[in-house]
Automatic annotation (TrEMBL):
Pfam families: MutS_III. Signal peptide: none annotated. It comes from Paragonimus westermani. InterPro entries: DNA_mismatch_repair_MutS_core, DNA_mismatch_repair_MutS_sf, MutS. Residues 29-221 form the DNA mismatch repair protein MutS core domain. This is DNA mismatch repair protein MutS core domain-containing protein. GO terms for molecular function: ATP binding; ATP-dependent DNA damage sensor activity; mismatched DNA binding. Transmembrane segments: none annotated. It comes from the Eukaryota.
Length: 233
């Protein structure tokens, strides 16, 4: 669907585009979407859900079979008898963060302490969501496709187990930096203990150095610059 069609069908808010040429503008679901079809249908609870809905509206399905699958899943969830199921799904979705974005931060070594906590929470909720929907795989085509791809739900538990074993979430939150649990590696534990003792060690060294200085110097400070090198070179 081209930009002109999207504008006059009010898929997104036409005011977002102003008088600019539509062909050179990107539609966005982030803008003010008053009086738009997107706003009417957007009841998504997650950012990924909103992005997916926007993509669906940009590129509508043309395959009749896939259209019917989507309609059947929607009809199934909207049945009054399945109200509790829909409520459980939405409640679980609220706890799922933008996992691809967190992965990207981890790959760039720029993940924040809350990202690790959010990842753990998201994996737990994702596992719960799959469990809730698995019994209705015949009616919910995304779950059915997931099962057909032989997705191993147990892998989520394995990832959570390793994260819980490696990451000290309490220390990570308190210290505002990634913290590894003690007991995983003796050398790493020794480094952590040395790091914790650095303030006292530097204070002691500062006092000793101060004694060597002239009497008119009353204070001094030591700055520690860690030298990281590869032991193989």
């Amino acid at each position: 669907m081209d930009g002109v069609a999207m504008k006059y069908l009010h898929i997104f808010n036409p005011k977002y585009f102003g008088n600019n040429v539509l062909g050179n503008r990107r539609f966005s679901a982030k803008g003010n979407n008053e009086l738009s079809i997107f706003k009417f249908f957007n009841v998504c609870l997650t950012k990924l859900g909103r992005i997916t809905l926007e993509q669906w509206m940009r590129s509508p399905l043309q395959d009749v079979e896939k259209i019917n699958e989507r309609l059947s899943a929607t009809e199934f969830l909207l049945k009054s008898a399945n109200g509790s199921l829909l409520k459980s799904i939405r409640s679980t979705l609220r706890n799922i963060e933008n996992i691809p974005r967190i992965f990207c931060r981890m790959q760039q070594s720029s993940a924040l302490p809350r990202d690790w906590k959010n990842m753990m929470q998201s994996l737990t909720s994702l596992q719960q969501l799959i469990g809730i929907c698995a019994v209705h795989a015949n009616e919910l085509y995304p779950v059915r496709q997931l099962m057909q791809e032989a997705f191993e739900i147990e892998s989520l538990s394995v990832i959570q187990m390793w994260m819980a074993r490696i990451i000290d979430f309490e220390a990570t939150q308190k210290q505002h930096r990634f913290s590894v649990s003690q007991g995983l590696d003796s050398v790493l534990d020794e480094w952590i203990q040395t790091y914790r003792c650095l303030p006292d060690l530097l204070s002691q060294l500062a006092e000793e150095e101060l004694k060597k200085l002239r009497e008119n110097i009353s204070t001094c400070a030591l700055i520690y610059f860690p030298l990281v090198r590869n032991s193989n070179h």
